[in-house]
Design brief:
Layout (H helix, E strand, L loop, with lengths): L4 E13 L11 E3 L2 E3 L13 H14 L6 H10 L4 H9 L6 E10 L9 H12 L6 E6 L12 E13 L2
Parallel strand pairs: 4-5
Antiparallel strand pairs: 1-6, 2-3, 4-6
Length: about 170
């Protein structure tokens, strides 16, 4: 690594439960900026994209500027912004001299089956973050029924975002 760069990393996490059976939120399941037609929607004021929320939280961990919460709520409520990609873009504006280098994502949920969607999710994350696809790791686990997510009640995402900044 260049002696003039300082390595950074941050953890992002988020979880959402599925909309109750029979309830219709009027939107599909979104994960990583991709629509998954075979899954029930997740509860939330926005598109409830749990993966983009976790990545946004990781960016906030790098910058110290929280977006999920008051800022995203304001964007949703006052401006009608429900696309979680806009919340991520807002967080990315705070990076300053920080350069993202790698993203590792772990998704836990019994449903839907995610393996067929991982290439599309990786491509969308690549576009949103400006990272090459080879710098984005995606894994998915059913959770083996050990948690609410593993029992099919929702989806949880954990991620680690790596970056570098110039030495001071």
């Amino acid at each position: 690594m260049d002696a003039g760069l300082v390595p950074l990393s941050a953890i992002g996490q988020d979880s959402h439960r599925f909309v109750a059976p029979g309830a219709s939120p009027g939107r599909p399941l979104r994960l990583g900026g991709v629509t998954l037609p075979e899954g029930p929607a997740l509860e939330g004021n926005s598109d409830a994209d749990v993966l983009l929320h976790a990545v946004t939280n990781a960016v906030s961990g790098l910058t110290g500027v929280n977006v999920i919460g008051a800022t995203a709520d304001r964007m949703c409520r006052d401006e009608g912004v429900t696309d979680s990609a806009a919340y991520l873009a807002e967080a990315l504006r705070s990076l300053g001299g920080i350069r993202l280098t790698h993203l590792s994502v772990s998704i836990e949920g019994l449903r839907p089956k995610l393996t067929p969607h991982l290439p599309g999710i990786r491509a969308r994350l690549s576009d949103l973050l400006g990272l090459p696809g080879r710098s984005i790791g995606l894994t998915a686990t059913s959770g083996e029924g050990l948690s609410d997510f593993g029992r099919g009640e929702g989806i949880q995402v954990l991620c680690i975002l790596s970056a570098v900044r110039p030495a001071e």
